[in-house]
Amino acid sequence: MSRFRFVLAALVAVTFLAGLVTAVAPATPSAPPASADTAATSRADAVRALLDRRARAVLDRDETAFTADLDPHADAGFRQRQRDLFRNLAAVPLAEWEYGRVDPAGADLSGLDLPAADEVWAPDVRLSYRLGGVDVEPSSQGMAYLFTRRDGRWYLNSDTALEPLGKRTWRGPWDFGPSHVLTGTGGFVLSHPGGEVLAARVLAELDGAVTAVTEVWGQAWARQVAVLIPASPAEMVALVGPGFATGAIAGVAVADRVDPDTHTARGQRVVLNPDSAGALSPLALRVLLRHEITHIAARGETVDGAPMWVLEGFADYVGYRRSDVPPPKAAPLLAARVRQSLPSALPSDADFRGAGMELAYQQAWSVNLYLASSLGEPGLVALYRRLARVRASEVDGVLLEATGGDTAALVRGWQEFLRRSFP
Description:
Layout: H1 36-60, H2 63-67, H3 76-88, E1 94-100, E2 119-121, E3 125-131, E4 139-143, E5 146-150, E6 153-158, E7 180-184, E8 187-191, H4 196-217, E9 225-228, H5 233-240, E10 251-254, E11 257-259, E12 264-266, E13 269-272, H6 274-278, H7 282-298, H8 308-320, H9 327-330, H10 332-340, H11 357-375, H12 377-387, H13 395-403, H14 407-421
Parallel strand pairs: 8-9, 9-13
Antiparallel strand pairs: 1-3, 2-5, 3-4, 5-6, 7-8, 10-13, 11-12
Helix pairs in contact: 4-7, 7-8, 8-11, 11-12, 11-14
């Protein structure tokens, strides 16, 4: 799991975004018990075929085929949104798009306001898609679809009807407007009408940011990044979650799933808040992108619960690397703190939340800067790879093995570094 940050000059942030899993449910008992299994299998086969046609239509860019299986009696707004969704995908580089997990089993849909039909069904469906040039593995997302049968044929009727059950359809950028895509060597930037200026600024920095991260982290990552620029607060919430879609947050690195065994992550994106990110200076935007892309490169090596001073401080180290920004200017709150008294401990995870968040980030950056000065940059990277895989209780053991000293020794060395760096 990744973390978040807000800041005036260069706000950096990370979290993970998980797909929602929908339930399965027949609306009405229809077949007699003797034929229940056969009827359920037939229903599942019919809906699988419908979803296969829908997936092929997306990849073939065939709008007629995509809309052919929409229920003609469905809400007109839903049918129009489906047409819009298809058209909004026109510029998106899709390498894969398919639906799976249509389970013949069902759950109780009683209590819902269901459409009149011969049969109504809400199976567990997941969308699996892969962005061309960016995703090595497909991303999987839950789709809360409701299907209806009329005169022997199955249709897609709704993607919102299950919301009273707490089941929501995942929304991608293409659900919120036409997608404009700018492509570079290091990936692409996806925006909507009105986001062209920021998208162009981001594209101008993207290749350099990927190169800068690779210089530190090495070649063992995808080195292709998708940067998304939402057009509205609702889209920001859909992409990063309600807890992080605030005006103070300029950037978020998200992922759908991290496999700790293979050290891989799926569905990684950098999502920028257009208001906050758009107001950043060129240097601040550069730091922001390099910070977030560092999280993407390192996420497969990072476990949930690893110390935040390691994760966020290292990302800031890469973000500010070779920027020629002196420490007092990069970390003004820390400079003011050092003038009063030296910090007596590393910032805790709790320090990265609330009013003291910015000071915690500046402290974490300075710790990593100190480690780079004492261990060398390869030593810092090696230490990060070890510390990012452990929880706070295991840090002392790793430090002793890697540096010969424990956390207390690290703090003492860091204090001396602060005295020199923040006179």
